[in-house]
Amino acid sequence: MLVLVVNAGSSSLKSQLIETDTGVSSMKCLAEKVGAADGYMNVSYAPDFEKIKYDMPDVTVADCLAKLLEVLVEDETSPISSLEEIAVIGNRAVHGGEYFTESVLVDDDVLAKYDACSDLAPLHNPPGLACMRMVRERYPQIPQVAVFDTAFHATMPAKAYMYPIPMEYYEKYSIRRYGFHGTSHGYAARTAAELVGKPVEELGIITCHLGNGGSITAVDGGKSVDTTMGLTPLEGIMMGTRCGDIDPAIIPFLISKEGLSGAEVDTILNKKSGFLGVSGVSSDMRDVEEAAAAGNENAQLAIDMYIYRVQKAIGSYFAILPHTDVVVMTAGVGENSISAREQIFAGLEHMGMKLDKERNQVRGENTIISADDSPVTICLVAADEEACIASDAAAIASNL
Ligand code: ADP
Q1: pLDDT tens digit string along 173-183?
Q2: At what angle do helices 385-397 and 182-196 cross, to 10 degrees?
Q3: Ligand 1 centroid – CA 19 distance (Å)
Q4: Residues flanking ligand 1, CB < 6 Å
Q5: Which of 191, 227, 337, 370 is surrounded by the most beta carbons within 10 Å?
Q6: SS (H, E, C) 38-51
Q7: Same fold, 2-148 and 198-385
């Protein structure tokens, strides 16, 4: 089935045309700096994937999707000549709040509920919503499916998702922990179960999605029982530009000492913290590793803090899972940083996690990297969010 996967960000649009029967992608699109005067969109088609650049000054993310749907029909090298060839659009949806526990076919009710969750993800929900609305208005014949980042974590028990703050705030505003990267954690757990050759229902798995954003999830019998991200993607481990867990009293302290507004502190914690804030070098792990190797002490400290916080998160899930059989590493850092993996597991042998240094010399593959005598199997899974979204969308569309 031919699926157009749409991933609308706050100032970007990523899209792919994926044939789910073969897993082959025949079009890739990336729009960046959307909303700015120098915004642009690159579209490329199989087999060469040579980029065609469209200038998109001062537009919205939904405008970019509208343009993409036009050029898909017009471009000579496009794999399709009519939008009727697209069986379904699979939309990445960020925050489904308490409404959505699985992927759904988009209708007006779904859009209204997704809109109601915008408060919880003000940067990410509105552009995705605008894209889905635009398609529904202009191309009502194309079915759309929404795949939520939060849905996989809907199985968390209340003791894991509630915050110890007055109950009235949960009742009034649904303030609770939701978790993100759900598509990735679910895929990582299922793929790891295949790698170890056991049904996911029998396994206790800790999935580590370590990218620019990062979260770690405890998966018991295939279900998320706890995850490090919370109401928003700011909670949890240290990330590229996000602080992760800090003492919440830091926020009023900064507001009072620096004369900042709440929104300004929010920006500092989301965009200027993490690797970037501590190292002063970059939010990108590769740059920070390079700077540390060249003797930059703050860069080294940032890496040490990151490793330490990831180890603590893995340890806490080892404690709450009835049994831990597998730990999975996925996403940019998890898949590619041989050195980060080596450092993380160097401290975890006493929990039965024994990395095989030779097997660990690998990037972006689905494979086992622990020693044969390691009580806990350590796996690497190459994240493929687009393929997961396409597969969910195709599954729902095939029942129409
Ligand atoms: P996003 O959350 O933006 O999807 P990714 O999953 O692509 O992020 O991860 C981006 C992170 O992965 C960056 O910090 C980048 O430095 C890191 N990364 C990618 N390749 C490597 C590598 N070879 N070694 C170390 N880090 C890497």
Answers
A1: 999 999 999 99
A2: 90
A3: 26
A4: 211-213, 240, 284-286, 331-333, 336-337
A5: 227
A6: CCEEEEEECCCCCC
A7: yes
